[in-house]
C-alpha cells in the first residue's frame, strides 16, 4: 500500500508539473516534460531493480522441480521394493521362528525322554546294585566255604574223600563234597549270570542314553543354526527398516525442496503482480488528472463563452441605444427640416426626401477558446530498423496473427511451447515459447508491438549454454518487458544485450536487443512471453 501511495504522489506531482508547464513557453514545456519523464523513469527503474533483487529463477526452478519429481518417483520405487524385501524377510523370520519352536518342542520332548531314561537307568542301577550285593554276598559265602575247607585242612575234594575213616564216612564225605561242589557250581554260575546281566543292562542303558544324548546334541545344533539364521534375518529386517526410514526422510526433503521452489515461483509471480498493480495505479491516477484538467479547461471555455456572450449583448444594447439616439436625432432633424420645408413650401412648395438609414451595424463572429494544453509526453525515438524488421517478417512469409509481430525476424522455429509439461508426479509450467535455431545467435530481438519499456535487466556475463542457472535476471538473464496498450505486456529473455532502457517508448519492430544465452539457458534462444492484465497467455495465439 505504501508503494501504491508513493506512486500516487509521483503521479500527482507529474500532473502538477504538466499544469505549470502549460503556462510557460513551448521551450519550458519541453524541459518540464523531460523532467517528468525522468522522474517516471527513475521511479520505474527503482521499482524494476527492487523486483530484480528478489526475483527467483523460474526456468532453473522448473528444471530443479523436474529433477526432484524424478527423485521422488525413484525414491518411491525404492521404498516399495525395500518394503517388499522387508516383507520377504519378515516371512522368512516367521518360518524360521516356527522351525525353532518345533525344534524347541522336540528338544523338550527328548529331554523328557532322557529324564525318563535316566530314571530307569537309576532304577536299573538299584537292581544292578542289589545283584552286585548278592554277588558280593555269594562271593563272601564262597570265601567262607573255602576258608572252612582250608581250616579243615582239606585242600581238595579228593583229600577229603581219601581222608575218610570208613566207606560210609567216605560216601558221606563224597556226597558232601558232591553237594558242596554242586552248590559251589550253582553259586558260581549264578554269580556269572548276575554279573553278565548286570553288565548287559548297564551297557544297554548307557547305549540308549548315549543315543538320546547324541540326538539331543543334534537337535541343539539345529536349534542353534536356526537361531543364528533368525538373528541374521532380524539384522536384515532392521537394516531394511533403516533403509526405509532413510528413503522416507529423503522423500520428505525432496518434497520440502519442491514446496520451496513452488513458493519461490509464487513469489516471483507476486512481484510481477505488484509491478502490474503499480502500473495500473499510475495509469488510473494519470487518467483521473487528465480528466480533471479537461473538465477545468471545459469550465474555462464555458466561462469565456459566457463572458463573450455578455459582451456581445452589451454591444448590441449599446448599438440599439445608438440607433435609438440616431433615430431620435434624425427625427428631430427631420422635424426641423419639415418645419423649415413647411416654411419654404409654404414659400416654394418643394417635395420630401426619405433618407432613413436601416443599417443595424456589425455581424457577430465567435472565436473558440484555445484549448491546447501542450501535453505531449511521448518521447519519439526514431529507430533506424523498425520498418526494415517488419518487412523482413513479411519477406519471410510471416503473416501477423494479431497486433503483435514476430519478435525475432528471420527465425521462426519454436523449440518449446507454452503450457503444462508432464513430469510424472507433478506437472511443470512453461510460461512462454522458446524461439531457437542453429544460427540465431546475435539475431535482432524486436518489439512485438509499440509500447513503453517497464522492466530491464541487463547484467549477466554468462552468455553461453549451461544446464544450471547463474541466477542473473531471475533466470531470464538479460531481458526486458514492454507494456503495450489495453493491458498487454511482452517479455523477451536470455539476450546477449538489451539496448533499450526503462521508461523508453519503442515502436513496433524496433530493436530491443540481440539473441544470446544468458541466465538459465542451455543455448542461444529467445524466451518470449505475452501477458494480458498480468495473466500469461499462450504467445502462439498472438504471433
Ligand atoms: Zn548470469
Ligand atoms: Zn522458455
Could you describe the 3D structure shown?
- Strands 1, 4, 5, 6, 7, 8, 9, 10, 11 and 12 form a 10-stranded antiparallel β-sheet that branches. Strands 2-3 form a two-stranded antiparallel ribbon.
- It has 3 domains: 1-54; 72-253, Helix Hairpins (Orthogonal Bundle), CATH 1.10.287; 384-543, Glucose Permease (Domain IIA) (Distorted Sandwich).
- It contains 6 helices and 12 strands.
- A hairpin with a 4-residue loop joins β2 and β3.
- Helix content is 63%, strand content 11%.
- It is of the alpha+beta class.
- It is rod-shaped and about 260 Å long.
- α1 (2-23) runs antiparallel to α2, α1 runs parallel beside α5 (167-345) and α3 packs antiparallel against α5.
- It binds zinc ion (ZN) (2 copies).
- The site of one zinc ion has 7 residues, from loops.
Tell me, what's the shape? rod-shaped
Query: C-alpha Rg, in Å?
Result: 64 Å
CATH class assignment of the largest domain: Mainly Alpha
**DSSP summary: helix tally:** 6
Structural class: alpha+beta
Q: Please give the number of β-strands.
A: 12
- Which kinds of small molecule does this entry bind, naming each only once? zinc ion
User: Roughly what fraction of the amino acids lie in strands?
Assistant: 5-15%
Distance between the termini: 36 Å
Biggest sheet, in brief?
A: 10 strands, antiparallel
Write a compact overview of the structure shown:
By secondary structure, the protein is α+β, with helices and mostly antiparallel strands. Helix content is 63%, strand content 11%. The protein folds into three domains: 1-54; 72-253, Orthogonal Bundle (Helix Hairpins); 384-543, Glucose Permease (Domain IIA) (Distorted Sandwich), CATH 2.70.70.
